[in-house]
Amino acid sequence: MVKKARHTHRREESLSRDRIIEASIELLDRSGEGGLTFRALSDRLATGPGAIYWHVSGKSELLTAACDAIVARAMNAPLVRATPEATIRALALGLFDEIDAHPWVGSALTLAAGELPMVRILERLGQQIRALGVPDDTHWAAVSALLSYVLGVSGLNAANAQVARTRGMDRSKFLAAVSTAWSGLDAEEYPFTRSVAGPFRAHNDRTDFLAGIDLILKGIDALRRA
Amino acid sequence: MVKKARHTHRREESLSRDRIIEASIELLDRSGEGGLTFRALSDRLATGPGAIYWHVSGKSELLTAACDAIVARAMNAPLVRATPEATIRALALGLFDEIDAHPWVGSALTLAAGELPMVRILERLGQQIRALGVPDDTHWAAVSALLSYVLGVSGLNAANAQVARTRGMDRSKFLAAVSTAWSGLDAEEYPFTRSVAGPFRAHNDRTDFLAGIDLILKGIDALRRA
DNA sequence: ACCTGAACACCGTTCAAGT
DNA sequence: ACCTGAACACCGTTCAAGT
Lengths: 226, 226
Description:
Two copies of one chain form a homodimer. By secondary structure, chain A is an all-alpha fold. Helix content of chain A is 73%, strand content 0%. The first copy, chain A, has eleven helices and no strands. Mean pLDDT of chain A is 93; it is low at 1-10. Chains A and B meet through helix 6, helix 7, helix 8, helix 9 and helix 10 of A and helix 6, helix 7, helix 8, helix 9 and helix 10 of B. Chain A binds a DNA duplex through helix 2 and helix 3.
């Protein structure tokens, strides 16, 4: 019963990079990372695959551009005046929420290392690190730790969403399955993992994410006093 | 001039899961993540693609098993008696070095979220967190922060290696290219990124990685005093 | 300048048929 | 029980040909 979503409508506007990226995001949101193909995309845009190549260099540019649209939204959100620490938390949470809503962004971000979406995050976090007043020569260490952590959580979220999707589970079913697997590990070899199997089942990704940010902020704070 | 590496030798041993994984690792090391295909693999093992499916359920199991072989090596390395902090640093560095030598492990690790390779890391780090004497209800927050950070750095390493490979650059050329791109960003919008473009060019991944671990350890230390 | 769509060179996976 | 290899249903990308 695979029914191809036929597009009955004729194309009204002409093709453009923006329309292509918009359609890419819709495909990625609906069907995950595997959902973005040139065939599905050209079908949706009522054109041929070759037409897309006129506006975009290839798939990786497409994915990065889609990712950037989401990241930009989170990084350009207006910020209330607050301490640098509070601003970092707010920025990180805003990004977390976007990635939670669009899990494919998590892996796209890492894939586009050094490119615009990552730079947006680097910049916003970095400005706050600067405002924190830590020594100049620790700026890079501080941001890169924050950035790596954020990318780690993002990638994990993307992977979890991906696995849950392919196995047709929702999030709580997936957590329960992992938790059960961990509980069944050898007691001699994996005592710690067994001990966190319970907490893991009930854990809240968002809270844990913030706790990790706070841990790193605490560490950065120590840099200032050193 | 694409010369297919012909295998002139007949197969001596019979096929086995271990031989398949060993060959997978060789392919991944030589040609990166894209190098692992059932065709390349069956060519190398002097068999057909179908034969591999007799021993292994599919590509993702193959990748996870290959990843696990490398991770196990790092996590089972004998440890000298030391403080929990020093042990965590040693474990993390050992893992970093393996991933540096086998960058594909970085993305495979994230892809196999919740599975054995990740659990090995979770367990070893967790045992040391426990030894640190922080409150029981902070164990999960502490390990998951460390783990996410390690996965973030790993993924980034994998992505960098991948980009450098496709562009045919070595690491220093790649760093220089990113650094130059950052220096060319708009001065109003990206002051911080521009300011770290210089340090970035000369930075040492291994040192930065360890600095991040230390930052998180400092934060965990604060948990004990709280 | 922009679009079409067939064709190319790949993929992972399945499966009837062999030993 | 284990292996073979053709076949299936996909991919991303290219390109001669159209408008």
